[in-house]
C-alpha cells in the first residue's frame, strides 16, 4: 500500500471532496432556511385565522378538564386564538388567573396551534399577490431553479461525508512517511485500511462526477434572488414544482394512505422501503409519483391507474431510469400512435435515457439499432405486431410499458397477441390507464390475466360495487390508483402538455395544398381538413374519452369556427356551444352555466378569441387547444378562464400540435421572443385588455412562416 506522496495526493483529493460536499450542504441549507423563513409568516397568518374560530372550551379538552376557564371567559377571551396571541404577563393580570392557569392555558393553546399548523396549506396565486407570498415565491425560485440536482447533491454530500471524514481521521498518519515509520504495527494496519477505504470512496465519487455536481449546484444556489416578475412567471410555468417543494419542505402534503392508493399496510411498507435511484432523472418527483414508480418496481407486473393529470408517464420513466441505474440497458414502450411522439419527447426531457422511435417505414432499421445499442424503444401497437417478439429477436427488456392499456383488453386481437409476445417473457411489465378500473371490472380482469393470472379469479364484480377503496385493496398486489382530490391539496396546479402528432397522408396533402397557395390560415386548419383521418382529431377524441372516464369537464378552444364544427361532429351529441363572438354576452353565459350545471362529464366548445374574455369556466378542469395561437396572450387569457380562484381541481391544458408544420414554426419563432418581456406584458392590465399591444404582428409572422414552409417543402425536407 503506497504511502508518502501517493497517499498525500489521495488524502488531499479527499479533503477537496469534503470541502465541496460541506459547501453544497451549507448552500442548500441556507436556501432552505431562507424559504422556511419566508414561509413562517404565511403559516402564522393561516394558523391565527384558524385559531380565531376555535372556541375557548377546546383548551379544556386538551387539558382533560383540569383548566379553569371561567375567569378567561369573563375577561372576554372567547377563542383559542385570543389566548394564543396573549403573553403570560398579560394573562396573569386577569382577576382569578394565577401563574399555573396562565401557563396551562398558553401551553394548551400552543399545542392546538401546533396541530393546526400541520393541517393548513399555503396557497400561492399569481393573480392575487402580496409581499409575504412574493417573498416565498422568490425564495422557492432559487431551489426550483437548481432543479432535482439540488436534493440529489445534498443526499450524495451527506453520504460522502459519512464515508470520508472518519477515514481521513484514521488515515492521517499516511500524510507523512516519517510519521508512518513511528506508527505501531496495529495502528499502521488501521491507517492502511483507512487509506484503502478512502481510495474506494474517492474513485466512486470520481466515477459519479460528484465534485462537478456539487460545484454546479452551489453555483445555482448562490445566484442572486430573482426579480418579483421573473419569480412569478416561473411559478406560473411550473407551479406543480413549487408546490411539491413547498409540501416537502413544510412536511405537509396529502394523506399518506391516499397518496399510496389505500394499499394494505404490509404492501405499502415494502414499497416504501425500496430506494428509488434518480441518477438518470432530470426532474423532481412528487411524493406520490415516487411511490408509484417504486410500486411498479417492487411489484414487477402491475397496472398504474392514476387519474389523468397526475403524471403516469413520468412515473413510468422514473421506474425505467432506476433500472438503467442498476444495469438494465433495453426497455420497450408500446403506445397508441397518437402519443408516440410525446413519449419520445418526455423520455428525453425527463431523463438521460435514449429514446428510439420504432415506427413508420424505417422501423426495422430502428429496431435493429435498439437491439444493438439499447435505450427505450417506443413503438405503436400496430408496429409491434410487425416485429419479432423478445425470444425471437434475442432481446429481453428490463421493463415493458404499455400505455393506454385498455387497447389490449381483448386477448384475441392482433395487438394484444403482439403485446403478450413480449410481456410473457419479461419480468417487469407496467400497464398504464387513466380510467377507473373499478367501473370496468371485466376489463380489469382481462388485463390482470396478462400480468398476474393467479390474481384474476379472485376479482369479482362485487369488488367494484363495494366502492373504489374496497376495490383497490382487493386488487392491491397488481393495481395502484390515486385521484387528484387525494393527492393535490394545494391551489390547483396548471399542468401543460404539448400533444405532438404527425400528419396523416390526407392531412399532409391538405397541408401541402395550403402551403402551395400561400394561405396561412388554411395551413393552420389543415390538420382538421380530412376529419376521417385527422391525427389531431383522433388525439382530441382520446383526451375527451379519458376525461369522460374520470367524470371531468372539458373546454375545447380553437380560433376557427370551421374547426369547432368539425370537433362537434366528431364528438356527437351532448356538446355545448360553440361560444363565439357572434353570440350575445348573455347567451354565452347561459351556455357556460348550462355546461357547469351538468353532473359529471361535459364538453364545451369555444372560439378562443371569445372564450378568453369575460367568462369564468371554473367547472372545467381539462382544456384542449386545437392549435397554437399567434398571440400568446390570447391563449393565456382563455386558459385563465378555468385556472383561477374558485377552481378546485388541477387544470390540464393539452395543446394539439403537428411536427414539421406551421405549428412548429410558430412555436419556434415565438419562443425566440424575450420570455421576461412577454411575461411582464402578459401580466399587465394593458395586455389583458389589448393583446395587440405586446404580440408580434399577425401579418409579419404569417408571411415569415409561409415563406419558410414553402422553402422547406421545395427542398423536400
From TrEMBL:
<keyword id="KW-0347">Helicase</keyword>
<dbReference type="Pfam" id="PF00176">
    <property type="entry name" value="SNF2-rel_dom"/>
</dbReference>
<dbReference type="InterPro" id="IPR038718">
    <property type="entry name" value="SNF2-like_sf"/>
</dbReference>
<keyword id="KW-0378">Hydrolase</keyword>
<keyword id="KW-0547">Nucleotide-binding</keyword>
<feature type="domain" description="Helicase ATP-binding">
    <location>
        <begin position="293"/>
        <end position="454"/>
    </location>
</feature>
<keyword id="KW-0067">ATP-binding</keyword>
<dbReference type="InterPro" id="IPR000330">
    <property type="entry name" value="SNF2_N"/>
</dbReference>
<dbReference type="GO" id="GO:0004386">
    <property type="term" value="F:helicase activity"/>
</dbReference>
<dbReference type="InterPro" id="IPR014001">
    <property type="entry name" value="Helicase_ATP-bd"/>
</dbReference>
<dbReference type="InterPro" id="IPR027417">
    <property type="entry name" value="P-loop_NTPase"/>
</dbReference>
<dbReference type="Pfam" id="PF00271">
    <property type="entry name" value="Helicase_C"/>
</dbReference>
<dbReference type="InterPro" id="IPR049730">
    <property type="entry name" value="SNF2/RAD54-like_C"/>
</dbReference>
<dbReference type="InterPro" id="IPR001650">
    <property type="entry name" value="Helicase_C-like"/>
</dbReference>
<feature type="domain" description="Helicase C-terminal">
    <location>
        <begin position="539"/>
        <end position="695"/>
    </location>
</feature>
<protein>
    <submittedName>
        <fullName>Superfamily II DNA or RNA helicase</fullName>
    </submittedName>
</protein>
Amino acid at each position: 500500500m503506497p504511502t508518502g506522496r501517493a497517499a498525500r495526493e489521495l488524502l488531499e483529493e479527499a479533503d477537496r471532496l469534503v470541502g465541496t460536499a460541506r459547501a453544497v450542504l451549507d448552500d442548500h441549507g441556507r436556501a432552505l432556511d431562507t424559504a422556511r423563513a419566508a414561509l413562517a409568516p404565511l403559516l402564522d397568518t393561516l394558523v391565527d385565522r384558524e385559531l380565531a374560530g376555535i372556541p375557548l372550551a377546546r383548551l379544556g379538552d386538551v387539558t382533560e378538564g383540569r383548566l379553569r376557564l371561567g375567569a378567561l371567559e369573563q375577561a372576554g377571551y372567547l377563542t383559542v386564538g385570543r389566548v394564543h396571541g396573549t403573553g403570560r404577563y398579560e394573562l396573569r393580570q386577569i382577576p382569578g388567573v394565577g401563574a399555573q392557569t396562565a401557563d396551562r392555558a398558553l401551553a394548551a393553546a400552543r399545542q392546538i396551534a401546533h396541530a393546526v399548523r400541520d393541517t393548513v396549506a399555503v396557497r400561492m396565486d399569481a393573480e392575487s399577490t402580496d409581499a409575504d407570498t412574493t417573498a416565498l415565491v422568490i425564495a422557492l425560485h432559487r431551489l426550483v431553479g437548481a432543479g432535482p440536482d439540488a436534493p440529489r447533491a445534498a443526499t450524495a454530500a451527506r453520504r460522502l461525508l459519512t464515508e470520508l471524514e472518519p477515514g481521513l481521521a484514521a488515515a492521517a498518519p499516511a500524510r507523512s512517511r516519517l510519521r508512518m515509520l513511528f506508527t505501531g504495527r496495529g495502528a499502521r494496519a488501521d491507517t492502511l485500511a483507512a487509506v484503502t477505504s478512502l481510495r474506494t470512496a474517492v474513485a466512486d465519487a470520481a466515477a459519479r462526477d460528484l465534485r462537478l455536481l456539487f460545484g454546479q449546484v452551489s453555483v445555482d444556489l448562490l445566484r442572486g434572488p430573482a426579480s418579483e416578475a421573473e419569480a412569478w412567471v416561473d411559478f406560473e410555468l411550473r407551479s406543480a414544482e413549487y408546490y411539491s417543494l413547498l409540501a416537502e419542505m413544510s412536511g405537509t402534503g396529502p394523506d399518506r394512505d391516499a397518496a399510496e392508493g389505500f394499499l394494505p399496510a404490509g404492501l405499502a411498507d415494502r414499497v416504501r422501503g425500496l430506494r428509488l435511484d434518480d441518477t438518470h432523472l432530470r426532474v423532481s418527483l412528487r411524493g406520490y409519483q415516487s411511490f408509484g414508480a417504486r410500486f411498479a418496481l417492487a411489484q414487477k407486473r402491475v397496472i398504474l391507474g392514476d387519474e389523468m393529470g397526475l403524471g403516469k408517464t413520468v412515473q413510468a420513466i422514473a421506474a425505467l431510469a432506476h433500472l438503467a441505474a442498476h444495469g438494465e440497458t433495453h426497455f420497450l414502450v408500446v403506445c397508441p400512435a397518437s402519443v408516440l411522439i410525446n413519449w419520445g419527447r418526455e423520455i428525453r426531457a425527463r431523463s438521460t435515457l435514449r429514446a428510439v422511435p420504432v415506427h413508420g417505414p424505417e422501423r426495422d432499421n430502428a429496431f435493429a439499432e435498439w437491439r444493438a445499442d439499447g435505450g427505450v424503444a417506443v413503438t405503436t401497437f400496430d408496429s409491434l405486431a410487425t416485429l419479432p417478439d423478445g425470444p425471437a429477436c434475442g432481446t429481453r427488456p428490463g421493463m415493458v410499458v404499455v400505455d393506454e392499456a385498455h387497447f389490449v383488453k381483448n386477448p384475441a386481437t392482433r395487438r394484444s397477441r403482439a403485446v403478450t409476445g413480449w410481456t410473457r417473457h419479461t419480468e417487469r411489465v407496467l400497464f398504464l390507464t387513466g380510467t377507473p378500473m373499478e367501473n370496468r371490472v371485466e376489463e380489469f380482469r382481462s388485463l390482470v390475466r396478462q400480468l398476474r393470472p393467479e390474481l384474476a379469479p379472485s376479482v369479482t364484480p362485487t369488488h367494484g360495487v363495494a366502492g373504489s377503496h374496497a376495490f383497490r385493496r382487493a386488487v392491491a398486489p397488481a393495481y395502484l390508483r390515486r385521484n387528484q382530490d387525494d393527492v393535490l391539496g394545494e391551489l390547483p396546479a396548471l399542468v401543460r402538455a404539448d400533444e405532438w402528432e404527425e400528419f396523416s397522408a390526407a392531412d399532409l396533402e391538405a397541408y401541402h395544398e395550403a402551403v402551395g397557395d400561400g394561405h396561412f390560415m388554411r395551413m393552420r386548419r389543415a390538420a382538421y381538413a380530412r376529419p376521417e383521418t385527422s391525427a389531431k382529431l383522433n388525439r382530441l377524441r382520446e383526451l375527451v374519452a379519458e376525461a369522460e372516464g374520470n367524470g371531468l369537464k372539458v373546454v375545447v378552444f380553437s380560433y376557427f369556427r370551421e374547426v369547432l364544427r368539425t370537433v362537434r361532429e366528431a364528438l356527437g351529441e351532448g356538446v355545448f356551444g360553440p361560444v363565439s363572438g357572434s353570440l350575445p354576452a348573455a347567451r354565452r353565459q347561459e351556455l357556460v352555466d348550462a355546461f357547469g350545471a351538468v353532473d359529471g362529464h361535459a364538453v364545451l366548445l369555444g372560439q378562443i378569441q371569445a372564450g378568453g374574455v369575460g367568462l369564468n369556466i371554473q367547472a372545467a378542469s381539462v382544456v384542449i387547444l386545437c392549435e397554437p395561437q399567434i398571440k400568446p396572450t390570447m391563449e393565456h387569457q382563455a386558459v385563465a378562464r378555468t385556472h383561477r380562484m374558485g377552481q378546485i381541481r388541477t387544470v390540464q391544458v393539452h395543446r394539439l400540435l403537428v411536427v414539421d408544420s406551421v405549428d412548429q414554426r410558430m412555436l419556434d419563432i415565438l419562443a425566440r421572443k424575450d420570455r421576461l418581456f412577454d411575461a411582464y406584458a402578459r401580466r399587465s392590465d394593458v395586455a389583458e385588455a389589448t393583446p395587440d399591444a405586446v404580440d408580434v404582428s399577425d401579418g409579419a409572422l404569417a408571411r415569415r412562416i409561409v415563406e419558410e414552409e414553402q422553402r422547406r417543402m421545395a427542398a423536400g425536407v
